[in-house]
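Sequence in, structure out.
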Amino acid sequence: MDSLFKALSDGNRRKIIELLKKRDMSQKELQAHFKITQASLSHHLDVLKRANLVVDERRGQFVFYSLNLSVVEEAVNFFISMFKSGGGK
């Protein structure tokens, strides 16, 4: 769970997740939405992959990134359960 919180703590990584909610994208496609270096984007993608929020798949010459929906769903359920258990206090 710590890697999940670390992954979500950065605005660039949250933006990557928002973009990948719409469709799978290559790093080049993602890069067009940021004013950071390719190396920085690679680092952010690596953090998301280590948290299992993002998976990658080689398609020809390109690597495409997509959300790992089962982990995203698990994270959402975790946050919902935190607020439910604390309701009325």
